[in-house]
Amino acid sequence: MSGSVLVIDVGTSGLRSAVVRPDGSVNGLHHRAFVPSTPFAGLVEFDALEMARLVLEVTRLSIADAGPVASVGITNQRASTIVWHRSTGTPIGPALGWQDLRTVGECIMAKLEHGLGLAPNQSATKVAWLLKNHVGDDAAVAAIVDDLAFGTVDTWIAWTLSRGSLHVTDHGNAAVTGLCEITADGGPRWHRRACEALGIPMEILPSIVASSGVIGHATALEGAPPIAALAGDQQASLMGQSCVRPNMAKCTFGTGGMMNVLLGTGAPDTPERSGHGTFPIVAWSRQQAPTPEVWWASEAIMLSAGTNIEWLRDDLGIIADAAESDTVAASCSDTDGVMYVPALLGLGTPSWDYGARGALLGLTRGSGRAHVVRAVLEGVAHRGADLLEAIEADHPAVRVPEIRVDGGMSRNRTFVQALADATGRPVAVSPISEATTLGAGYLAGLATGTWSTLDEIAGLWRPLSIVEPRSEVDRVRQRAKWADAVTRASGWIPELSSLDF
Fold first, then answer.
1. How many alpha carbons fall within 13 Å on the CB side of residue 7?
2. How far apart are CA 200 and CA 96, in angstroms?
3. Which pTM was predicted?
4. For 388-437, how does the pLDDT look when each residue is reduced to its tens digit (9 = 90+)?
5. Could you read off the pLDDT of 357-380 as tens digits, one per residue?
6. How far apart are the C-alpha atoms of 284 and 395, rounded to whole Å?
7. Contacts of 144 (CB under 8 A, 6+ apart)
């Protein structure tokens, strides 16, 4: 079977559907805002039933616009957590977004009592919290365990599209829940000891399937097309930017920033964070006999990227919209010594300092609006260089030749040039700002014959532009100043800086 692929792409603040054609073009795009609620500081929740309703609404519109499809791919915000009743399809409580921090204490106790390295943005402690607070103690959970199901967003959407016949997740989404271990053959599997320590019955966990492979049918849609791909958003972006060979890298600059470098099929020794603050992730897996072929990648994270542009717009009021940051920054040739550390939510890779805070340094009486805006863009670019340096330090055999970028900030020319200058690498801009849609489409199409090989996916890459780095001498000097600025921004709230997940 070959042909067009319907993609459902569920992000943190909205969801969309679109149809990916065999030539890589995208048609029939429909979007709906879906912003989570924050009833208190640190809490991030959403209504899973409303998410399901909106997914069915947009997918049916896409098929009506673009015509029948041969397969379906799903890509999603990772680690957001839903627990529901199998008998009714009704969640036991609110779904917890990946940004939700209500289980910080549980993460600390899991490390102290059980030696488990868990972070609050993973699913593990969220599942335990939902069971405890919306079902009850272990006895209450055991009494209805056969009627309970846990899933991340990919699991929930597959359940919805299949009218409850599928309870699955892929290797990539499973591996970032905090509930997996790496097997001898290189694939992640559910970790019995972690589940027992947290009081999570293994019966409620979904089956782990390949990222690319037919797993069932979307009977809720016209024609019941096969569901042939599940992938987390960053993994889908990596595939969507045709990073299908080792050492190829992409960075997504959205609200936060994620850099991923494809490593190959060799499994890491541990699923936990490496010495320079990066994580091993499953890039994708493909259905093979007798076991799936699993590809791995390294991930580095900045906690705030586009958030800093929102700060300039919404809080400081010095730009009218995000696009104006490019125009204003381009009106001056440099920052005149101003430097900005984008640590509004702390620093991720490499230091993981939750107590670091944003810093604007080097101001003089002559510093103006344009200097500040440019400093913010360059600060995010320097954080991008931090991510690259951390991945290459954790993997000495890796040398990234080019960085491919997507996300909203990829359309900012001043920023893209600053990223090339800070990293010393060419930066290739994705032809569509949300490459996740393409990636999920490619994974589904590989499973159903729209494309046959990863080389075909590589051949579909058509960058919008390629920006070359400028002076290496300036880069070295600016990186040294940057390191000093980060030192000054670090440890601002010692109590938070002392947290280590």
1. 37
2. 16
3. 0.95
4. 999 999 999 999 999 999 999 999 999 999 999 999 999 999 999 999 99
5. 999 999 999 999 999 999 999 999
6. 19
7. 85, 135
The whole-angstrom separation of Cα 230 and Cα 464 is 27
In a 10 Å sphere around its CB, with 0-12 CB exposed, 13-18 middle and 19+ buried, how is residue 299 labelled? buried
| Distance (Å, whole) CA 480 – CA 473 | 11
- The sign of the dihedral angle between the CA atoms of 123, 496, 280, 77 is positive
383-411 in b/e form (b: 16+ CB < 10 A) is bbbbbbbbbbebbeebebebbbbbbbbbb
pLDDT at 1: 47
CA dihedral 334, 338, 344, 346 (to 10 degrees): 100
Residue 52 CA, distance from chain mean position = 20
Q: Which residues pair with 196 in a beta bridge?
A: none
- Alpha-carbon distance of 237 to 392, in angstroms, equals 20
Q: What share of the chain is helix, strand, coil (3-state, %, to 5)?
A: 35, 25, 40
User: Both tokens of residue 5?
Assistant: 């692929």
Tokens standing for 2? 């070959």
Cβ of 245: how many Cβ atoms within 10 Å?
Answer: 11
The count of other CB atoms within 10 Å of the CB of residue 452 is 11
Asked whether the bond before 226 is cis by omega within 30 degrees of 0, the reply is: no
Check residue 269 and give its pLDDT: 81
Please name each of the domains of the chain with its CATH number: 5-233 (3.30.420.40), 242-429+471-501 (3.30.420.40)
CB 49 within 8 A of CB 122: no
CA nearest neighbour of 74 among 4, 26, 15, 126: 15
Query: What Cα–Cα distance (Å) separates residue 316 from each residue in 109, 319, 372?
Result: 39, 8, 11
